[in-house]
Amino acid sequence: MNNEPSRQLDMGSDPVFRVLLALAIPAMISMFFQNLYEFVDTMFIAWLGSAPLAAQSLSMPLFYLVLSLGKGAQIGATTLMSQARGQDKPEEAAKLSESALPLLLLSILPLFLLLIPGLCTGFYHFLGARGPVLTEAYPYTFWLVLSFPIMAYVMIGEAISMSHGNTLMPMKAMLIGNAVNLTLDPILMFYLGWGIAGASIATLMGQLLSAVYIYRRLKQAKLPVPLLYLRKDMPLYWKKISHLGIFVTISQLVSPLGLSLLNAVLASFGPAAIGAWNIMARLEMMGLLPLYGMAGALIPYVAFNYGQENWERIRSGVRIFLLGTGLIILPIMAVLILGAPWLVLPFRSDAQVTELAMHAIRIAALAHIFAPLELALFGTAQGLKRPWYSLFTSIARLLVFRYPLAVFFASFWGVTGVYWSQPLAVALSGILSGILLWRLLTGQVFQSRLPRDEEMNYSEI
């Protein structure tokens, strides 16, 4: 029996702490298992050697490109659907939910050119792959690209569920998908001998079962389902979603650009330096997932109350978010710093990669105390339809702060200097985010009426 509708919250009147907690806990678990896909793949690929691990590291800009497009459509749709529900416009919310998937699929269509071996090889050669690393890149990328449409369906299904205050459905979908991925990875990669290709095939199969589950649960809950065909009025809703989503996409696209630039710096120190950064990034992401889950919960909460023009409730939610994430991040930092030697054991890398990874993990964790500020700005700005705030801080962190610091420090302290660019950039962007968050919550956004899209002031920063 489907009892998920009974779990839907009233984001406008239920106690603030209860609403955020009810939204955040399933979102945290869902994001944990969503990122577990790549974490598990990285762990098993590391068992294959440094060349496959470096090949996967170089594929991350491609993965982040699709994730960026997906997050733009997902968060744009979630914000607009939540606001429409707050304004008691269920028909508008339904049309938005049905229009998001075609927009996202059209956006990722050009990436299917990478299924052509020559184009794929040229792409990775441009990123710096050579020799055995270049050989390992294509089989992993082939199945990765085929999984992108399924990934798109899952992300839009999650957006629909989140906009209705239901975060349990995405969580259960991720549990199913990861169980499949975790089971198939060792079978396909080692027992059947498919190597690095087996990792991306296992991910594809896990996402496929997640998509099937989401489709069935949305139908059972009588909620809109993502559509795979076009309607005449869809371009209108694409424009609305893109109006907000483009800032999220650009903000997310800064990540693969920043990673590509950083990989270029690390490449001069060899595959071990790149592989160690990949391991550090995986563990850092897993450690910060509780914060990302809470930031994701903040978006529909803020958007719904924005639709109801409940300003004080929004401020209260942000205060609770900062207090909660501030308490959560301290033990996470301790685990990463003190437990680094044990955290890298599952990757079974060679001695050089292991030593560099432990060093990178400890260095990066030092600045995690600043992460809640940037994530609070992200969730609040998206919910208030001011996504350019988080875009500004992403560009500052990855391009203005981290890359120049990496180049400068590398010339003096080698690969260790590159790793130190990460915490310094996080600290600087956290301070910047705190200033912008205060300005956002005390500025002209909080007024007596909702602005129309054409009245949005993009020069607020």
Automatic annotation (TrEMBL):
It comes from the Bacteria. It is a multi-pass membrane protein. It is found in: Cell membrane. Coiled coil: none annotated. One of its GO terms (biological process) is monoatomic ion transport. Keywords: Antiport, Cell membrane, Ion transport, Membrane, Transmembrane, Transmembrane helix, Transport. The chain crosses the membrane at residues 16-37, 43-67, 103-125, 137-156, 190-215, 244-269, 289-308, 320-344, 356-377, 389-413, 419-441. One of its GO terms (molecular function) is antiporter activity. GO terms for cellular component: plasma membrane. Its main location: membrane. Multidrug efflux pump. Belongs to the multi antimicrobial extrusion (MATE) (TC 2.A.66.1) family. NCBIfam families: matE (TIGR00797). This is Probable multidrug resistance protein NorM. The lineage of its organism: Bacteria, Bacillati, Bacillota, Clostridia, Eubacteriales.
